[in-house]
Structure formats: C-alpha cells, structure tokens
Amino acid sequence: MEIKKIAIVGCGAFGYALALLLGRTHKNIIVNVFDVDEKVIKELSKNKKHPFFHKGHIITNNILPTTKVEEAVDKADLIILAVPAQFMRGAVTNIKDLIPKKAILLHVSKALETSSDKRMSEVITESLNPNFQNDIAALAGGMLAHEVADEMPVGADIACESEWALTELKELFLPSTVHVEITPDLAGVEFSSSFKNVVAIGSGIIDGLKLGTSCKAFYIAQLVKEVEGIAVLLGANKETFHTSSNAWVGDLLTTCFGNSRNRLFGELLGQGKTIEEAKSILDKKHKHAEGLATVKIIKEIEQEHNLNLPFFNAMYSVMFENKDAKEVFMKISLYQNS
C-alpha cells in the first residue's frame, strides 16, 4: 500500500510537529490535521501557524487543517493518534465507525490509562469495533517536539505486531530526519515510553534540589532497574530494555536531561511547589506531565505484586505523602534496591 493520505488526530506540540515533518518530507501526501480545539485549527487555516507551538514554522500546502474529524480520517491510509493517554479511549470511540478498513493506526501517547492500567494499544483495541482489521502501532523515542519540528536528527522505534505495517511505516519516515528502527515488541515500546516519564520526574526533583549531576545519574540508574523489572513482569521483552533502543535509552536520556515536560514538572516539585502548583505552571505553557498518572499506576502495580521499589517510593513519598524532598533525596544512597 502506498500512503497517500495521513490523518493526525490531535494537534498539540508533538502531533503538530509530526504534521510539519511529514508534510515537508512528502509533498505528494495529504496531511489532514484535526483537533477538538477549534481555535487551533482556525488559526492554522487562517495564518498557517499554530497559536501555541512551533510558531516559527508555516504549514505547507499539503497540510490541511479541519474542524471535522470525519473529513480528516476519510480515505486515510494512516491515522496518527496524538491525543493524551487519558483521552485516547474517547477519541478512538468517536472515530471508530469512520476509520477506513486498511488504515494503520499509529499512536504516540506516552502513558498508561489510569482507569484500567492498560497500554494504549490495548485501549485502542477495546475502543474499536469488534471486527476491526486495522494494524495498531506505537511510535516512541528521544524526540522533543520542537526538535522534530525543526528537523533535527532524532531516533525512534516503531512497534507493531504486523510486519507489513512496520515496513510501510519505516518507509514513510526513511527520507525524514527521524531515524526509525522497527520491532514487534509493542508492550516493550509502550512501557518504555510510559515509564521513562516517571524516571524523568524523579530526575527533575533532583534538579530542583540542586543535588548535582552525579546524584541525578545515580538515582536514574537505580530507578531504571525498578521500572524495567515491572515492564518485563507485565509482558515486555527484556531485549527492548537491555539494548540501546530509541524507545528506552534514547527517550530516557532525552527526557531526563532535556527540556522536557516531565523533567520540568519534577524540577518544580524539587523547588517546593505542590503538585497542583506545578500542574498550573505547565498548564499555562499548554503542557501536561503524563508521568504523574503513571506514578500512581506503578504504585498500584507494586502493591498488587508485592514488589520492593525503594527508589520509586522515595519519589512517591515526596509527591503524595508530603515528605520533605531534600531530606528524602539526601538519604537515597542508603536505600537498597534488591
């Protein structure tokens, strides 16, 4: 199948960055962009610019904004789902009767669903019609949205159980500045992109406390062991975490050391802000830290499986048990990770 039309559902920072990238890379492909915020779509249609993100870029003529989701997905060969994890079920349910039979569904969400603890591919599957035949894939890697929009060289993994869909998606990104590697380990890639946000919040707390790079690296290394074990326990392939994959190592480094939302959220907590205050600051920047919901999910998993996660619990105690961040993180070298 030759991809002739792409529909992007969700025009936030990353969805819009992908629209810019793919629109410029493939001038012969129509890229329809839809968002529930009509202000965003109207601004794109009128001035060719996004009102909030990547303002230095103008959309190409083959990027077509629309306020009608049915128009966006009609005859689409690829539907990119770029909506926050907690809205994924509703977004897919809303379009399930509009999705073309052969369209590939590619999601870029980096969290689990809080109401079910499920991965996004599971949520999407449950939200589609029972007799659906669409291939579901996930894209993840060290890709800050503004760097994708600026066409900086970045790396990503695409996971899907369909070899055919993986081939199609890799060919789509091949001429772009996104270096793509493919894998059938859908669970591994989805847990990677979700759990790295949790690690980033912890690293951000240390940044806020100004405890130094060495402390930050130590904490990351220990917390990584804990969340990797959870991912494998829940069905991920060990190789996804024990090799230098884009979805795990690449995204982890980018999120923990770059100007990412989750690291910033943690930094605000380390500076003494409450969760609500930190969320409010991000809201004003039109940003959302999806790792916050995943922290709560990991706590549930720990309790359900009777796990020992001392380094995770250091962060959790600061976030949800009103423990003093400086006191907790000054003592982390005493913790034992079994």
Please describe what this structure looks like.
With 338 residues, the protein is an alpha/beta fold. It has two domains: 5-184, Rossmann fold, CATH 3.40.50.720; 188-334, N-(1-d-carboxylethyl)-l-norvaline Dehydrogenase, domain 2 (Orthogonal Bundle). 52% of the residues lie in helices and 12% in strands. The chain has helices at 13-25, 38-47, 69-73, 85-95, 120-127, 145-149, 163-173, 186-209, 213-233, 238-242, 246-257, 261-270, 275-284, 291-305, 310-320, 325-330, and strands at residues 5-9, 30-34, 63-66, 78-81, 104-107, 136-140, 154-160, 178-183. An eight-stranded mixed β-sheet has the order 3-2-1-4-5-6-7-8, with helices on both faces. Helix 8 runs antiparallel to helix 9 and helix 8 (186-209) runs parallel beside helix 12. The relative contact order is 0.11. The mean pLDDT is 96.
How many runs of DSSP E, i.e. beta strands? 8
Q: In which order are the strands of the major sheet placed?
A: 3-2-1-4-5-6-7-8
Kindly identify the CATH topology of the largest domain: Rossmann fold
Mass-distribution shape: globular
Question: What is the makeup of the main sheet?
Answer: 8 strands, mixed
Tell me the structural class: alpha/beta
The CATH C-level class name of the largest domain: Alpha Beta
- In which range does the helix fraction lie? 40-55%
Number of domains: 2
